[in-house]
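lol ok so funny story. i was supposed to be doing the assay writeup but got distracted and ended up predicting the structure for this chain instead. priorities right. anyway since i did it might as well share w the group, maybe its usefull for someone
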Amino acid sequence: MTSTAVTGISELVTNDPARERGLLGVVQDAAVVVDEGRIAWIGPETDVPDADGRLELNRQTMMPGFVDSHSHLVFAGDRSAEFVARMTGTPYDGGGIAVTREATCAADDEQLRALVAARVAEMNALGTTTVEIKSGYGLTVEQEARALRIAAEFTTETTYLGAHVVPLEYHDDRAAYVELCAGEMLEACAPHARWIDAFCEPNSQYAFTEDEARHILTAGKDRGLLVRVHGNQLGPGPGVQVAVDLGAASVDHCTYLSDSDVEALAGSGTVATLLPGVEFSTHSPYPDASRLIAAGVAVALASDCNPGTCYSSSMPLMVALAVREMNMSPEEAVYAATAGSARALRRDDIGTVRLGTSARDLAVLDAPSYRHLAYRPGMPIAHRLPGTVL
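and the output, tada:
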């Protein structure tokens, strides 16, 4: 059997503007035909052509799988006590990363591999079909390269983040660590990475200044890596401008944005990736996504799954938070979590349902409409398309 007709689709979210059916390109009462693992036909169920097999979805919704374009999955250890402290008033400043670094470096390859595998499986079970994974909890040449080798076993979207924080042993010689990130560490990590990232955040003593971040990111760009940036998380800062100047695919967090930041993003190809799980987990203010969308900025949603500021890999939760707290419509949030995040990874082969796209990148909702992602927060209604079709 090579082809399967998938019928009983209440709503098919395509994200295809050519269909002229709103932002999500929704097809009602739809069917698709999957042939040798790829979409071969899309249309109304009444017109579905013959296929070798059939899968009935029973009035469920089909949509592109979630694209999680920001995660930190290669880690060991536990920081739940830090979460409790923040819930009682202790602000986040980036210092807890050192705790995760110690536990991660102490874990062997087999332990880390098993932890990443479990987290990716958890994501898949909630409808995420593509994930970006960063290093950043090793902060030595050997440990950062190890993290990326393990991450590359699970995704092609791997990001070198040696510039996560300045480790304690370099606090009296920051320049030496910056040069390590831009030199020897970069050379060891570049073969295992597609991206380079830096935590450009002058509001934290542990993160990197504008000049430091520019130096490291420029070195990575010259080495052939694509650029993304952690920016404007803890307060107003230069992260957005650094990202735009370097042609970054994405600047992530964007919690504190000036009018000039919004204007710069609107006039660039840089996506603003919002991470509402972080605001939820740190008691920080939520950014106003509607302000960005109204200005013409491309917006993505991602989980930022990590042990310190958002230990959740649930993209459905991120959609619900974006609707509830960031002034996004359900339609805008779903688009940002799929096509928007695909754009943040500079990918046009995921985040949409079109002829030729892979069935491995499809998700199914146990609900009659995509609106249920925000309408039924916390419920496990999203999952990947059954493997029998793939």
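DSSP finds 14 helices and 15 strands in the chain. Residues 109-125 form the longest helix (17 residues).
back to the writeup now i swear
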